[in-house]
Specification:
Keywords: Transferase. By secondary structure, this protein is of the alpha+beta class. The protein contains six helices and ten strands.
Length: 194
């Protein structure tokens, strides 16, 4: 996949034009599926293309990974982004999969098919909202109070950040000075990046 290593000047200009906006936030119509339990990472390990054990490893573990869900023959079925919502290795693992909302039921059925005797819970997360965030000229806060997770997009730096928050959370409190943008502007940005 070819990705241009340039910033998003159009979106950055949009942020500056919005009276000093710190970031442009775009609501995404993608679904979130939670996988919880002591065996969550081991369960997902053979079903996805990326090394899921990185999410629950001690030390400098990444908060998000990009992967594809595989079928029995090893063919890619769906693309997903995985997020770690548990704070430490002492807590019960809680991994959230971001997927296209039209395939949420299919992915849930696919995972439940292979759940045999695993101590995991697989359920949609309708109480969470997902946002794409393109930072303006200033940097984003490293830790936001109302945000469950604010992390760089694991696919590429030019894609911005991902924000998972409780549904109905106030974005102005999570990222002070941010402006809510039209999701079509974000899609145009994605298409320009290749």
């Amino acid at each position: 996949m070819l990705v241009r290593a340039i910033t998003a000047p159009g979106l950055r200009r949009w942020c500056r034009g919005q009276r000093g906006a710190a970031a442009a936030c775009f609501p995404l119509g993608r679904a979130l599926l939670g996988v919880r339990g002591a065996e969550a990472a081991a369960f997902l390990q053979g079903l996805l293309t990326n090394d899921v054990t990185q999410l629950v490893a001690e030390g400098d573990a990444p908060p998000a990974l990009y992967a594809h869900a595989l079928n029995v023959q090893g063919r890619c079925l769906y693309d997903v982004i995985l997020y770690r919502l548990h704070g430490s290795t002492a807590e019960e693992p809680h991994i959230v999969l971001e997927c296209d909302s039209s395939v949420l039921d299919s992915i849930q059925q696919h995972l439940k098919l292979y759940k045999i005797r695993r101590k995991v819970t697989i359920s949609p997360c309708p109480d969470l909202s997902l946002w794409a965030v393109i930072p303006g000229d200033s940097s984003l806060p490293k830790c936001a109070d109302q945000a469950l997770l604010l992390t760089p997009d694991p696919r590429a730096e030019v894609m911005g950040w991902r924000l998972i928050a409780k549904k109905g959370a106030n974005l102005a409190e999570i990222i002070p000075g941010s402006q809510v943008g039209d999701v079509q502007d974000y899609h145009r940005h994605r298409y320009k990046q290749g």
